[in-house]
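Quick start: read one record
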Amino acid sequence: MTPVSSTSSTSTLGYLKWAFIATAVGLVLGAWLGWQTTGTISGMATIFFICAVLAVLEISLSFDNAIVNANKLKDMTPVWQKRFLTWGILIAVFGMRIIFPLLIVVIAANIGPIDAMVLAASKPEEYARIMNNAHLPIAAFGGTFLMMVGLKFFFDHEKDVHWIAWLERNMSRFATIKGVEIAFVLTIILVFSSLLEGEEATTFVYCAIYGLLTFLAVEVVGGLLDASQQTMSAAAKGGLGAFIYLEVLDASFSFDGVIGAFALTQNLFVIAIGLGIGAMYVRSMTIMLVEKGTLAEYRYLEHGAFYAILILSVIMYCQTLVHIPEVITGLGGAALIGVSLWSSILYNRRELLEAHG
């Protein structure tokens, strides 16, 4: 694989080649799994369809993930770009879509990894029940981490490109106050915890605080790692620290999709196939965004992605109180990114007219 560059003549279909291959292999594997588990044509077709729906769900939830990945990836060294696009996708597919759900059951049910795998294969209903019961702490942790990611983008006093100008200018101005985003997140945590009762409220607060501490720890460790690498070589900036940040970020994005997938099927292996296909599209979109310089060409695209992240974080919080269909989450994020893209196109047209005016 060649390092990600700033310009590329590769077509869109060229970037999606491996995603298409993963789709074909995944859907064939899903159909085979359906035949093996049910022994009927209708059962095979059902599993095939569920894999396809899960792939679409993952893609719709991950537009903003790809944009944020590209934002960080463009500043990474070619070596770490390549590592993220190879090791990172393996961690995303196998780590978050298979190992992560197993670990939740291992911890929640206090059983061994092998027992968790057996439970997933032999008692999928019980496995799904344990996963659903773990939704509150996962939503609190992941929602907090994503909220910090989104707020960090807007609470930046050096940020000079604003999409929703009146709001973003004020947020940029307040960024000079140290810890303002942390204070904001802690306030939101207190508000939502007050709407829960008893043990649920306590669990929410603890897991949200862990999410906040994880974000701060990743920031500190990432900064130290990149700084130590930079002392050895000026070209090494944006290495291991940025890699760790992106992996934790991808994990936070994946929480909602993994939990939501259990609404469609209780089969862990079907979920892994469907979401794994979607993860390959995220990888392809990330490479395309970086190589084609799309983030620089469409100035408000990042803004739309980070607004989508903030909305996703609030939705994850709200899901601790009421169920919100994942299709709303996905379509909402995609709509925001679409509007930001259209705003960017309009801006480019105005600039072009002024230049020729």
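Residues 165 and 326 are 30 Å apart (CA to CA).
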